[in-house]
Design a protein that fits this description.
CATH class: Alpha Beta
Mean pLDDT: 94
Structural class: alpha/beta
Largest sheet: 8 strands, parallel, barrel
Order of helices and strands: EEEHEHEHEHEHEHHEHHHHEHHH
Length: 323
């Protein structure tokens, strides 16, 4: 395993990490979760990602139980949660958002579900138009000072919003955001590579990127159709709209071209797509999702693949997947 600093912090996270989105608490229960987290730990993964909204809190419960069962040393791994959407289908106003109240209540609930005394990372899971950014910054600062959170950040905030939060923190001598969790893959790259570009040096921003396979699209398994029993099929229209989007045929053409290159060089499209993400020096860690240990074992090969592929082939991949 390789380890990278989380931006300008001293926290060294594994270049590949493991997340619970769309799997834990839904497809995966405690037994399989224990196998996956145990395998991830044995491979050197030391960062586990979660959120209050994943499976209405059940993803955190499953992960917390699995880690407790494995008796992983608390000083050897980092765990995250995210706050914004709440844990119920139709939350009341105080059960969601980034107000001081919900941020505090959600943090305490995440600690209980994950069975830990503190969160290593706590992220604002989207911007909240109903709460002033200063209120959220102060709420996060308080959690850090209380010892409930070590580092806080954002997920899918605009560069302007992140910069505003950082400036408010600096102005009032508060702990500011140190990490952003954006989607990043061959089909979705503008925000990480262009919009956030000034923030890496300006704020020392780290990134914990998710969806390296574009929810499976870059594995090639949806090149012909999206089966109803697949992960993308099960999640229905909302996820398909995010992953495939309106330019469906053009996006699938890019995926097929990518898969053709992977086949020509004798590599798995999934592993190749993950390796491509790892090439970006501003990516602190790439969050993997897996439902089987075999998937996890295969995806770890991306660490070596980064260095096995020559620059000419990477250039071909860039040309084939250009939007």
């Amino acid at each position: 395993m390789q380890y990278r600093r989380l931006g300008n912090t001293g926290l060294q996270v594994s270049a590949l990490s493991f997340g619970a989105w769309l799997t834990f608490g839904q497809q995966i229960g405690r037994t399989v979760a224990r196998e996956l987290i145990g395998a991830a730990w044995d491979l050197g993964i030391n960062f586990f990602d979660n959120a209050e909204v994943y499976a209405h809190g059940d993803a955190e419960r499953v992960m917390g139980d699995a880690i407790a069962d494995l008796r992983l040393p608390r000083d050897g791994y980092a765990v995250s949660s995210k706050v914004m959407f709440g844990t119920v289908d139709m939350p009341r106003p105080m059960q969601r958002g980034l107000s001081r109240k919900h941020v505090r209540d959600a943090c305490d609930a995440a600690l209980r579900r994950l069975r830990v005394d503190y969160l290593d990372l706590y992220l604002c899971h989207r911007p909240d138009p109903d709460t002033p950014i200063e209120e959220t910054v102060r709420a996060m600062d308080l959690l850090v000072r209380q010892g409930k959170v070590l580092y806080w950040g954002t997920s899918e905030w605009s560069a302007a919003q992140i910069r505003e939060a950082a400036k408010l923190a600096q102005k009032h001598d508060l702990y500011g955001p140190s990490v952003e969790q954006p989607q990043y893959n061959l089909l979705h790259r503008q925000r990480v590579e262009l919009e956030y570009a000034p923030l890496y040096a300006e704020l020392g921003l780290g990134t914990t990127t998710f969806s390296p396979l574009a929810s499976g699209l870059l594995s090639g398994k949806y090149n012909d159709r999206i089966p109803a029993d697949s992960r993308l099929g099960k999640e229905s229209a909302w996820l398909q709209n995010i992953v495939v989007g309106e330019a469906r045929e053009r996006r699938l053409e890019r995926v097929r071209a990518f898969c053709t290159i992977a086949e020509e060089i004798g590599e798995s499209p999934a592993v190749l797509a993950i390796a491509w993400c790892l090439r970006n020096p501003h990516v602190s860690t790439v969050i993997l999702g897996a439902t089987r240990v075999e998937q996890l074992d295969q995806n770890i090969d991306a660490l070596d693949l980064v260095h096995r592929i020559d620059e000419a082939t990477w250039a071909r991949i860039e040309a084939a997947t250009a939007g």
